[in-house]
Amino acid sequence: MGQDTAKNKPSTSTVPDNLSPAAREALLELSATIRKGTALSETEYFWRDHAAWLESIGYKLRPRYQPGWEPDIPAFQAVTLTNENLVPMARAAIVDAICIKDGKRVLLKKTLKAAHPYEVEITTFLGTAPLADDPRNYCVPLRDTLHPPDTPDLTILVFPFLQQLDALPFDTFGEIVDFIRQMLNGLQFIHENHVAHRDIGVPNLMMDGDELFPDGWNQRYANLTPEGEEHTNVFTRTQRPPKYYFIDFGLARRYDPSDPNPLEEPIFGGDRTVPEFKTNKESFNPFHTDIYYAGNTIRRFITEGTDVEWTGYYGTDFLRPLIQDMVQDDPTKRPTIDEVVTRFEDICKKLGPWKLRSRPAPRRGSIFKGLRSQIDHWKRRIDFIKRGVPPIPSRQPTT
C-alpha cells in the first residue's frame, strides 16, 4: 500500500517552499486523492485491454484507454477535472474512438447475447441498408460490427458519435415541433417494421451534433468541450437543424407481421412509470407501451419537466390533449402511432409563424439568464424573418 501511495503522490519538488510541513503533507495527500479518483476504474479495463486490437482493425481509443495511461495532474496547478480523459465513462458498455479510415469520432458499444439476445439482430435490421436508406428511418445507423476474438459471446457495435438530446435548449417552438415530428415519424417507421423499442426515453433519443457543436463535445459532459471547458461556438437547432435518432435496442423485439396483438411480459427500461406494469396481468402489447413511453417522453422533456433532469417549457399546452391520450392507464385505449402522427400534424397546422418563431421559456431557470437568452433570441428571430428561414427547421443549411 505504501508503494501505491508513493506512486500516486507528485514529486515534492513541485510543492511550494513556503508551506509548513503539515500543509505540505495535506496538499500532497489531496493531490494523490485527486489522481486516484481520476484513474481508470475496473469497469474500464476491458477497453484498455482491447485498445491494441481495436487499433489494429481501425479504431483508436483516446489516451485514457491506452495501456500504461495514468492521469497527468501536476501538483498545485489548475486542472480541468471535467476533461474527458480524467473522468470515467458514464456507462461501462460504451466508449468513444476515432475511426482511423475517415478520422471521424465514433461510439463503440459492447453487448452480450446472453443479456440482450436480439440487440445485434434488430440494430442491424434497422440500422443498415436497405432500411437505413429510407428517409423516414430515424434509427441510429450501424457503421460496423466487431467481434473480439477472446470473447465469442460479445459483440461491439460501432455507431456515429451522437450528441445528447438535452445538451442544448430549444430556442423556438418550431424547434420543438421538429423534434417531436422526427421522433413520432421515427417510431412510426419502427412499428411499421414490426419492431417495438420498449425503452423509449430522453436518454435513448440523441441527435447529430456535428453542425451544432463544430468544436466537438465531451463524452461524459455533453454541454462541455472534450477538454471540459465551456463551448464558445454553438449554433441553435434553427441555424443548424439536427437529425434525431432512436438508440439502444437492447430491449427491443421484432414480431411476426401476421400477429396483430403480440404479447410480452413486463420488462422495465429507463421509464418505470408504465401503468400496465403495475397491474397483475402477465403480458401486454408492447406497441401500446411504446405509445406511453413516447407520450411520457414529451410530457417530461417538453411540457411538464421533472424535478431534476429536465426543465420543461411554458407555452406547450397545445400538446396536452394528445399526450393525455397517449399516456392513459388503459393501454388498449391509447391511439396507434399512425393516429398519433395524424393528430400531431393536425395540431401543427393550427400553429402560426409567430408562435413557431417564439421562444419557449423554461419552467425552471435564472430570470437574468432568461432575459439574456430572450434578447439573443430576438436578434436571431429578426434575422431569420429577413432571410426567409422556415419557422420549423428543415435539414437545409440556413447559415
Task: Write a brief structural summary.
The chain has helices at residues 2-8, 21-38, 45-49, 51-56, 119-127, 173-192, 286-303, 320-326, 337-349, 353-357, 367-387, and strands at residues 59-61, 94-99, 105-112, 144-146, 154-160, 163-164, 195-196, 205-207, 244-246, 253-254.
Rg, alpha carbons: 24 Å
Mean pLDDT: 90
The biggest beta sheet reads:
5 strands, antiparallel
Q: Please give the number of β-strands.
A: 10
* Share in helix: 25-40%
What structural class should be given to the helix and strand makeup? alpha+beta
Unreliable stretches (pLDDT < 50, length at least 5) are: 1-13
Main sheet: which strands, in order across? 1-2-3-5-4
- What's the overall geometry? globular
Measured distance between first and last alpha carbons? 58 Å
Percentage of β-strand residues: 5-15%
H/E element order: HHHHEEEHEEEHEEEEHHHHH
Total helices: the number is: 11
List the helices and strands and how they pair.
Elements: H1 2-8, H2 21-38, H3 45-49, H4 51-56, E1 59-61, E2 94-99, E3 105-112, H5 119-127, E4 144-146, E5 154-160, E6 163-164, H6 173-192, E7 195-196, E8 205-207, E9 244-246, E10 253-254, H7 286-303, H8 320-326, H9 337-349, H10 353-357, H11 367-387
Antiparallel strand pairs: 1-2, 2-3, 3-5, 4-5, 6-8, 7-10, 8-9
